[in-house]
Amino acid sequence: MPRYYEDKPEGGACAGVREDLGACLLQSDCVLKEGKSPRQCLKEGNCKALKYSFFECKRSMLDARSRFRGRKGY
């Protein structure tokens, strides 16, 4: 396996954004101090930038223009 693929998270095109979103939610005060589930905190509006990036990444997978421009995300 090439070296530049070793640090890449497994699980598809948006795996890196998904992993960062999960880490952001688990480290938020909503989960740690208030004891809510990460799903509830996401609905309340925590980690908005990563949520939007994950949405854009998933949407770009369905967009036919992404064949030329490449997928959004990392």
From TrEMBL:
Pfam families: Pet191_N. It comes from the Eukaryota. InterPro entries: Cyt_c_oxidase_assmbl_Pet191. Keywords: Disulfide bond. Belongs to the PET191 family. Involved in an early step of the mitochondrial complex IV assembly process. This is Cytochrome c oxidase assembly factor 5. It comes from Ceratotherium simum simum (Southern white rhinoceros).
